[in-house]
Amino acid sequence: VVSAPAAAGAATPTPTALAAVSTLDTLVPAPVSARAEPGQDFRLTPGTAIVVPRGAGGAGEVHEVREVADLLAADLRPATGFPLSVATDSGRRGNTITLRLTRDARGIGAEGYRLDVARSGVTLEATGAAGLRNATQTLRQLLPPAIEAESRQDVAWTVPGAHIVDQPRYAYRGAMLDVARYYFPPDVVHRFIDQLGSYKVNRLHLHLTDDQGWRLQVDSWPRLATHGGSTQTGGGPGGYYTKAEYAAIVEHARERGITVVPEVDMPGHTTAALSSYGELTCDGVAPPLYTGYDVGFSSLCLGTPTTARFVDDVLREVAALTPGEYIHIGGDEAAATTPEADYTAFMAMATATAAKYGKKVIGWNSALASGSPFGAGAVAQYWYPWPDDATARDATARGAKLIMSPAHRAYLDMKYTATEPLYGQAWAGYVEARNAYEWNPDTTVNGVPASAVLGVEATLFTQITPDEKSVQFMLYPRLPELAEVAWTPLSGQSWDRLRTRLPAQAQRWDAWGVNYYRSPQIPWV
Ligand code: TNX
């Protein structure tokens, strides 16, 4: 796997020019407000301590603060080699990084933070653990890129003096990974989660099931994983997550402020399930496993007691593994489901079943058939690459909310350019770096008010990306760009500024070993 060569013509700063740029000017997503404080640079030293409020050994919120501090220390130790002990506040002054809870939500809300960097110490302040976690990610990006290294680096660990007040534009800042078309082992997902955390993404949508594979162990229907998970696109060996592995993914994400949204795609995209249990089909015959690229040809048999029992069992087991409020039930490309009335009734049944297990549902916006009970008060993920959709407009008028993933902006399986040789689809057009960034989720669907937009999700379907390197090539630089679309207020977004901040981010990707597309639109070093 290789990156496409950078095209000629882009202005390229010299490495020295990059080294002279303050990390304050390289933050992604850009903070709401950041003021440089000259002369107030902080130096991380072997004696630096991380300080948490008193009571942080106990239960509840203060305990979570301790967890955030521990994670910060763990993230900063490898490259610095410093002990970075975490200590309860004893009034100690000196070289400290202090995490503090506040009741003053002005300008920071539930997920934002205030970050003060001064010679004497760094203070991170938020109304809860979520905001403090976001503050630690900003602090990490304020350190030199070498902080991302896994082994000790000989670097002056200077943080530029600054006062930052920051909070997100949207509550839902997501990324989707399709682990069904290709199976990605847990360690790949764990690394992806770490990267999402760096960009303040707070939802990981896992597309767990599709025609080509079923990737989660289900005790009541064991063949879903053992048979349905036994291959993938192209016919490779596939795989699935045991419940323990899946729970570890959910927990790894939670520690980093990320809620996993599991997707069980129904009633279409179900060959792996149908092949595992012939009784889920209308003729009772299990089809062979599917390893091709097509969509829209499979369906559960609707209206049968067996299908209702299947939905109940699967959603019950998935709900038990899901601390978050949402399960995604798919609903896309159900072209093989007939008649339409059955589809609408099915989505209503699946919605009610999820509710029985304490979960709300998300569906692809193609599930927003007018009059469907799924419409009112539901959450739909909008993927159409066009601005007019009456069902989305009507549903939001009745109270539905949208997560914006318009394919021509946020589908990261789209090629960057026509000539990009290796990966990608083009059915929604080409999505160069700039296209992924310059759009407004609040005005993407005509007639849908901004108040109906919950947030943004970068979406990676993986029929064309068989391994971690090719996945990364599609994600970078577009994933961090979409994270900024989701976080930074529109007034703070600027392509000209973002494109000059991304080369410094790429030094962090290099340290992570991330393969990225060297877009000619960005002045890489
Ligand atoms: C559409 S949009 C799909 C996926 C494909 C993708 C390929 C949607 C909800 N489903 O099944 O993988 O296009 O770009």
Task: Give the SSE map.
Elements: H1 15-20, E1 33-36, E2 42-43, E3 49-52, H2 60-80, E4 86-88, E5 96-101, E6 113-118, E7 121-126, H3 129-142, E8 158-159, E9 162-166, E10 172-178, H4 186-198, E11 203-207, E12 209-210, E13 213-214, H5 223-226, H6 243-255, E14 259-266, H7 271-276, H8 305-320, E15 326-330, H9 340-356, E16 360-364, E17 379-382, H10 390-397, E18 401-404, H11 407-410, H12 433-437, E19 453-460, H13 468-475, H14 478-487, H15 495-512
Parallel strand pairs: 3-4, 3-5, 5-7, 10-11, 10-19, 11-14, 14-15, 15-16, 16-17, 17-18, 18-19
Antiparallel strand pairs: 1-9, 2-8, 6-7, 6-9, 12-13
Helix pairs in contact: 2-3, 4-6, 8-9
What best-fitting shape do the alpha-carbon axes yield? globular
Average per-residue pLDDT, rounded, comes to: 93
CA-atom Rg in angstroms: 23 Å
Work out the strand percent.
Answer: 15-25%
Largest sheet: 8 strands, parallel, barrel
Give the uncertain stretches in residue-range form.
Answer: 1-14
Number of strands: 19
Give helix % range: 25-40%
> Architecture of the largest domain, according to CATH?
Alpha-Beta Barrel
Question: How many separate helices?
Answer: 15
Classified by CATH, the class of the largest domain is Alpha Beta
Instruction: Count up the domains.
Output: 2
CATH superfamily descriptor of the largest domain: Glycosidases
Bound molecules: ligand TNX
Structural class by SSE content: alpha/beta
- Could you give the distance between the termini? 21 Å
Oligomer: single chain
Strand order of the largest sheet: 10-11-14-15-16-17-18-19
CATH topology annotation of the largest domain? TIM Barrel
